[in-house]
TrEMBL record:
InterPro entries: Hel308_SKI2-like, Helicase_ATP-bd, Helicase_C-like, P-loop_NTPase, WH_DNA-bd_sf. This is Uncharacterized protein. Coiled coil: none annotated. GO terms for molecular function: ATP binding; helicase activity; hydrolase activity. Gene3D superfamilies: P-loop containing nucleotide triphosphate hydrolases. Keywords: ATP-binding, Helicase, Hydrolase, Nucleotide-binding. Residues 88-261 form the Helicase C-terminal domain. Residues 1-53 form the Helicase ATP-binding domain.
Amino acid sequence: MDEIHLLGDPVRGPLLARVREDAARVRIVGLSATVTNADQVAAWLGARLIRSPWRPTRLTWQLPAMPLEAVAADWTTRNYAHTRRTVDLARHHTADGGSVLVVCGSKRSVRTTALALAQDRGVDTAGADPDDSDLVERLCTKAGVRLHYRDRPHKRDAEHAFRTRQADILVATSTVAAGVNLPARAVIVRDTQTGMSRIEVSMVQQTFGRAGRIGAGEREGHACLLTAPSDRHYWQARLAAGYTVTSRIRDRLPDHLLAEAVQMRIATLTQAETWWKSTFAFHQGHHPFDPLHDAADFLTDTAYLTRTPDPDGADGGEDRLEATELGRLTSRFMVDADLASTLADATTHLMVPIDPDTAEDTLITTLATRLPTLEQAPFTDRAKAELYNVLRILGRPGGTHPDNQDHEGEEEEWQPVAGDLARAVLLLVARAPRAFRGRPAYIRGIPADSMAPVLDDAQRCLAWLGAQGSLATVHPWIAITAADLASRIRWRTLNRSGFALAPGRGGGRLLWMCEQMATPAHTHALVPGMWQAACARGIDSPDWPGTTPPSACRLNQADYRTLLNARATGTAITLHPDHAHISAPRGATVITWNGTATARHR
């Protein structure tokens, strides 16, 4: 395990710790250049500790003095001070042929800093929009400056250009600190914040470690951290002391306990306690079982776990713990248990909508105001203005297209609230799907890159709600609307050979059928073609007759017939004053609602 100090990461740490549980079959070698409590980690692993102070090159790190603007009251001025200091340092280190890695706290900071570096090298960047990814790439490439972050399309080209010295400056997010080996003479950590959180000391140290790597042909490295004068002593002390790995499993203990139950590694509370004793958190002195019991109670109260008496005494009469269908679904979709509970509470009290527009808007608003990543989604001032314009049109009853100007000039009493920006993004997919055709860089003047995080998080939660349809844990209208919208978000840029597909309302069922026929291994390659072929034949649902698989189908004949039987094709519902008569295919699940509760019938 390289970077074993990631045991202290709240998400990846427990996953790494899971490997230790299979230690009988796995030989573990842990590597870290930053951890200070290596003896504690080694003792937990039952490993022999080997220390080495040797480093092939000399590394000098410092916290450079910052200009006076760095202590200004407003964020814009402070941000400008960091950019200006970054440009000065990069110019100094590249003057004699050195290479520089600049690490920023956000993707937008990467783009704005890269543009400033390009301008310093004589490239005309006047009027360039930092959110126009393609334009930023062209301008910065001219200056020998490249950009790198997780979902950037050109990141592999940027890595190659930096390694081969076609570019001598790489501006990136912290992804370069873990998993991407990009050595440089100098490293500049521009920001001490990543999103709303302070950057971890381990991340700074790992990033510093990229400076003066032997693979870059350097004999010494220089690393700089730009920080506000008021934080200078804090960072000096933390960097000098090094990074102590501390388990963060308790931050998300219900999720990890649920995962253990889903994978049937625990079946009783005693087994859960035994599992807890094996964790790094317990090894570090967190011995009380109270947090574990609280997590089990929470999962039981929210119906993700069941606790039932042991019927035959096989477990000593102790209650059995078992993940429910909803619990397994929640773990599979990787929805945090706390967040899942919040969404469940919110959707329970929603009124049944009177039409599809209201259904979509109600569900979208619920997500936008309950998911922190949506409620606090960051956008530039220009993008915010465009999104508010979209919301003024699409957020109205009957609003169907952002170019609709029927309400222009009306007195606006509406005022923006938290979540409105994410709501506008989701409404664009729901009511103006054609705007996404062909993967445009801008959609209604809004950068597509800035929309992606909102859409990705919303899609996962909508898919989770949609998958609950057969469990009767949400109202049928929620499951139907969520499943349809989740598929349309996933395939919003569906495109094949220049033919833009733009799935509209109701397209989710056909998209689901195409996904099943393609199989997971071929989904992205085959679904666009299947969708296009269906549309060309006037097919807008999976209810076709016949049993011959389409030519692109990857299922064998038997599996294809099973899939056909899973459709709701041929279902007929006849409503009566006091009951309903439903005729459905054999094996169908019928979900009913009596005005107060749902029920499942097989």
